[in-house]
Amino acid sequence: MIDTHCHVDFEEYDKDRDEVINRAKQVLDYVIDSGTNPVSNKKVVELSKKYSNFLYPTYGYYPVASEKRSKEEVNAAYDYIINHLDDYLAIGEVGMDYFFVKDKVLREKQKKVFTGFVEIANKYEKPLLIHARNCDKKALNIVNDYENIPYVIFHCFSGSLKTAKRIMQHDNYFMSFSTMVCYSKHHQELIKHIPVEHIVTETDSPYLALTKEERNEPAFVVRGVKKICEIKNVPYDYVDEITTYNAKKVFGLK
Description:
Layout: E1 2-6, H1 17-27, E2 30-34, H2 38-50, E3 55-58, H3 63-66, H4 71-83, E4 91-97, H5 104-124, E5 128-133, H6 136-143, E6 152-154, H7 161-167, E7 173-177, H8 185-193, E8 199-201, H9 221-232, H10 236-251
Parallel strand pairs: 1-2, 2-3, 4-5, 5-6, 6-7, 7-8
């Protein structure tokens, strides 16, 4: 089992990061730590060295912050990932967020920044992890124009079933379901109709815990898998095996 998207580099884990990783090792094969900004992107690489062969980094540029960045800052981000491609398994999370960003001008800037990362993923054939809150269809329309991106994951997918069906037209596109599936009726309904062959698992920890008082962590991805099994009425090992296979394929892990 793999947590394909978490943020254990965040300060929420500064006091007990070793313990969190050790708990994850008890139940998971790997953890994918997604960077979100220039500082975070360097930290995830540092953590990947400390927890080698278990924690792996991806290069991200959080969309809610991207529309606030200058052209020079965005170009520096592009240059950095191009010059450090071998340090990261994938590009992401990158994308657009229409939940927090309502202004049309800022949304257009998000789109432009996102498209830049898509073009890099396409040119250098790196997997792409997409954050597309309230704009899954628009993000899908963008990536559909590119043919050399090896794999695409729609991180924490929350779109419509109609969009999910369009995503499933691609053998190399996946939707990631977080621990939200344990309590979100919308996600539970999606799971009923999306084959496991198009699913990978995540926590997005420290976010999306089962309660507001709780801090999420990678080991809790097990909770999401159990809920998927319950909804689909299939064995735990079945969901574990296929989602793990999907994630290993995307990230090139054995």
